[in-house]
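So, read this over?
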Amino acid sequence: MPTTPDPFDLMIFARVAETGSFSAAAERLGLPKSTVSRRITVLEAQLGERLLQRSTRRNFLTEMGQRILIPAEQIIHEVDAVMAVAEHRQVTPSGRLRVSVPGDLAAISLAPMLAEFTKAYSEIQLELDLSPRYVDVIADGFDLAIRIGGEAQDLRLTTRHLVDLGIGLYASPQYRDRAGQPEGPEALAQHDVLVLLADGVPVNWVLNKDAQSVPADMSGRRVCANSYELLFRLARSGAGITAMPDLFARPYLASGELVRILPAWSLAPAMVRAVFPSRQLMPRKTRVFLDALLGHLKPRPLRAPQPLSA
């Protein structure tokens, strides 16, 4: 009974039939002519019949060769289709891209970048998971996850540092004018503070200036929430002072909706990193998204114009 033939040998046979010679087929396949001849001999032995009648000038198909030519050609077509898909995805990034992003970071800071990305790469189907859960990138089928703070623990994942978020205290000009500017961290006890909840526990502020590190006095009135975005909105509405990444506050400082409180003091920065399954053979869709993230979070400084040479 014939043994199962190697699909690669069927491809070789189809190329020989297409070109009419072992030499031309070997050139098309990038193989030595001796390898092509030997693989055809093996294939014939497996099938139990000759596929080609050899002559000095050209090879002719036997009846068996004619019968298996169409299935053999189909293998070539399928391989060519696979290569075409791979080449297209390298030239034009495409396919579904699943990304886990902290909701506050996406809503407050990344929205403009995400809009530009979807316009620039119309063949990428972007799926964003904004839930607060700590996803298992591999088991849950994500291409990339963005994480703030914490340490990388999964050795299966590659980590790419994106940016360190400086964190300061901010309030609306209306609140500052009404409640006054505190003179130091201890004076925050006289103010309304808007505090982030992490795992149900309020995050206390430790303020740093030069070599000093001082816990803020937060014994006054507090509003707590587990959403940066909500605290951000409350601060802009004049409800009190909140700690937030400078990146989030930057546009609202420019528009005058926020002012910096205790500008000489800041909280410890939070590291933002991307994690993904592997840097080797990274899909181009993931690579262009990672590049877009870096460009948004770490914009390159503008270069001064160079004087024209004489």
Q: What stands out?
A: The CA atoms of residues 55 and 284 lie 48 Å apart. The longest helix spans residues 63-91. The longest strand covers residues 158-171. The chain is about 40% helix and 25% strand.
